Amino acid sequence: MKRWLSLLLALMFAFSACALAEPADATAIDSSIGNQLGLDVLHQLYLYDQQALFSPVSLTYALAMAAAGARGDTLDELLATLDIDELSLDALGIAADSLNVRGAKSANAAFVSSDIALQDAYLGSLRGALDAGIFSFSQLENAKDEINAWAREKTDGMVDPLLADNLEPNLLLMLANAMALDAKWRVPFDEDATQAGTFDAPHGAVDVEYMRATRQMPYLQGETFQAVYLPYAQESLGMVVILPEAGRMYDTLDLLAANGLDLLDDMQNETVALALPKLKMSASMDLTDALQSLGLEKPFSAEADFSGMAEEGGLFISSVRQSAYLEVNEQGTRAAAATVVAMAGSALETEPPVDMTVNRPYILLVYDAETNSILFAAVVSDPSIEPAAPAATPAP
Q1: Given this model, what pLDDT does residue 30 score?
Q2: Whole-structure pTM value
Q3: Are 196 and 125 in contact (CB under 8 A)?
């Protein structure tokens, strides 16, 4: 039972776990990286929003790309946040290949401003280990359009847009991951058994469509919750549904954050009459505050050390954003997420612009360089004065 549980994502309803293989052995997959972070962030998001959806695995890959260029205390904080001692992009690449085999597509990219030169070794590691696309941009508006188009393509249109707000004016780099999943149940729900019912939402009862099935499935009666596991047709991929007792959501999230997926180790096959709502939801969020509250501070500060990316530029993480989509129906699950780690800084040192504010009388010349002719000349002492109407021309 523990074997397949270790392959689950911390995301409540979607992806398989973010797998990390030892570089020396491509068949040995340790799927723990990012899971604890995922459960902690899920707890944070629920505290703020009362409903939460995000992808821990997508966040993990985006932060890992940032960690690959971090040094010193900045790197230490990122590794601690990911709950690992060392980072191997090669291992993450192997994990991504493993996810892709089971239909959970993963893609990575770096969008780089023309105002900064990243080190070839860093970009080479992204390309070589994660098959990351490297794209350059010169204007921020173009960068937003380009990353939104990339996310839309890599998530089969489920994330659109990834970035809705204007980008930071000093943005120099965006590290992005996208995940997309289209998984069919190993045993589909019978559409004829789907029935309308009510759901006790925090603000009152709402009408929903319940998928229903009575069959043997892994089940656990926990201290504050019930849980079942629903396998997908793809090997080792499945969904865990955790139902807290009434009023025990926070207690259950606390247990998950404290124990991780070990909390579900004792599942046993039981005959379960399951009624599960059909679901379609999406979310867009800034994860910056949640990550900072979990102790990731230096990478967001002016003291950040990302010299493994660029020796000059004073790079720091300005924001971490994610958009996610989830649909659960009788046939299976469609889900997607895209995460971007936005990095800003001073770029290469440049001279400050010369200030010229034309706020006093000035001279104006309209000049033709081809003929070296001044066509019009003026001294403007008060630009607010309206011109007088031209005098009428007397009749001949």
Answers
A1: 47
A2: 0.82
A3: no
